[in-house]
Write a structure and sequence with these properties.
It comes from Bradyrhizobium lablabi. InterPro entries: DUF3322, JetD_C. Pfam families: DUF3322, JetD_C. This is Wadjet protein JetD C-terminal domain-containing protein. The protein has about 400 residues and is of the alpha+beta class. It folds into three domains: about 80 residues, Translation Initiation Factor IF3; about 110 residues, no CATH class; about 180 residues, Dna Topoisomerase Vi A Subunit, Chain: A, domain 2 (3-Layer(aba) Sandwich), CATH 3.40.1360.10. Helix content is about 45%, strand content about 15%. It contains 15 helices and 14 strands. Strands 7-4-10-9-11-12 form a six-stranded mixed beta sheet, with helices on both faces. Strands 1-3-2 form a three-stranded antiparallel beta sheet, covered by helices on one side. A three-stranded antiparallel beta sheet has the order 6-5-8. Strand 5 and strand 6 form a beta hairpin. The radius of gyration is 25 Å and the shape is globular.
Length: about 400
């Protein structure tokens, strides 16, 4: 098999062609595309592109249509002949094969629940076979999908009734935080099951008998909770304020923050709000953000102008990057990394082994895809706990407006 794993324009072109084929496997015409020569700025890049197309053609994966007469040296169009051969040529299984493998792995878990859980797995596998995500889970996230179906099967067996979320999560998965990681997709699916699509999460939890005791949200910044008797909570309180998720319907942003910063770890959050005064709204996520944190951030992000920077500061390790990606996938707009760089990890981090499971983030459009690629496949990988760094302002000193 030809090795074409080097990331360049030709490989990306073939990957896009394969994705088009997988997205619509029953299409009457094979997926095809014309090369974008404007993106190939040097003769070497053009030559490399042509070599890759010729290699794929010799492999039987594609048909290359070349120009006529004075354009005979150019490729007019590339057409997929055999998606399975193209996937093999690119060094990966087809989306259909991956979906089938993951489906088989999850069938045993889904079968422990009511029949509708297995039906949902079949529906999700159809989307995975087209290379799509299903309920924000891809076929590459097999471990997360297994956790999700474990929770769903347990809920279908009425095992959440009478328990709080953390206790139920521990009982079902041996992880107290698993439920929080999947709460929004669980709520969406169960809401449809009970005939109330789009129902509020609290309505869903009540239906399944879950006594959801949400943790307060810790933050510092220009937000407040107003009640009939006046201001119930002020985000400017020192060192920080605590707002319960049940109060979020009364929350408002009374002054535009200079930035929004989410922080993964408690010690770093404490230092940031105590040592940095820059007019930003700082929110503690507590690791993977609970549903209340996500709800608060969603409300704030749709309230403040898009030009207000949104950043996240977490550990430079597999967990930290997954939390960052979770924020990107579950909020109206994704954050930029704050103090999360390869350079800082190389300078202040500790030696660690590569984490290939981060490959899905490395291949995504995430703002930390390059960092994920290094942690997944790099040499001399290092992990950095955010507590090893001094807190820093997220806005330029001139913009603090503090006099």
């Amino acid at each position: 098999m030809t090795d074409v794993r080097t990331t360049d324009a030709g490989v990306e072109f073939l990957e896009r062609l394969l994705e088009r084929s997988e997205r619509n496997p029953d299409r009457s015409r094979p997926a095809s595309a014309a090369p974008e020569y404007d993106l190939l700025s040097t003769a070497q890049q053009v030559s490399r592109f042509h070599d890759l197309m010729s290699a794929a053609e010799r492999f039987g994966a594609v048909e290359v249509q070349r120009g006529k007469r004075d354009r005979s040296h150019l490729i007019e169009r590339v057409r997929v002949l055999n998606p399975e051969l193209l996937a093999r040529h690119l060094g990966r299984p087809t989306a259909s094969a991956t979906a089938q493998r993951v489906r088989q792995e999850l069938q045993r878990v889904a079968a422990t629940g009511e029949p509708w859980v297995a039906t949902l797995l079949d529906e999700m596998a159809v989307r995975w076979a087209r290379g799509e995500a299903a309920y924000r889970l891809t076929a590459a996230q097999a471990d997360a999908a297994k956790e999700f179906f474990t929770l769903l099967a347990s809920i279908s067996r009425e095992e959440a009734r009478g328990l709080d979320a953390r206790t139920f999560s521990l009982k079902a998965t041996d992880d107290t935080k698993a439920f929080d990681r999947h709460a929004s997709r669980l709520a969406a699916i169960i809401a449809v099951r009970i005939g109330q699509p789009g129902a509020a999460a609290d309505v869903v939890w009540t239906h399944i008998g879950l006594e959801r005791f949400s943790h307060p949200i810790y933050l510092r910044g220009p937000v407040a909770v107003e009640g009939a008797s006046g201001r119930l909570a002020d985000g400017r309180a020192k060192p920080f304020a605590s707002i319960h998720p049940e109060m979020l319907s009364q929350l408002s942003v009374f002054e535009q923050p200079t930035a929004i910063l989410t922080i993964e770890n408690y010690a770093s959050f404490n230092r940031q709000v105590r040592e940095i005064e820059d007019g930003s709204l700082v929110v503690y996520t507590g690791g993977f953000p609970a549903a209340g944190v996500t709800e608060l951030l969603s409300k704030v992000l749709v309230t403040v102008p898009a030009e207000v920077p949104f950043l996240h500061w977490g550990d430079v390790d597999a967990g930290g990057l997954r939390i960052f990606r979770h924020l990107e996938e579950n909020l109206p707009r994704g954050p930029r990394p704050h103090l999360m760089t390869k350079e800082l990890a190389e300078k202040a981090g500790q030696p660690a082994n590569p984490e290939p499971s981060l490959a899905s983030i490395a291949r995504s459009e995430s703002a930390i895809r390059n960092l994920a690629d290094w942690l997944a496949f790099g040499s001399d990988v290092r992990h950095l706990e955010q507590e090893a760094l001094e807190p820093r302002s997220v806005v330029p000193a001139a913009d603090h407006g503090l006099g």
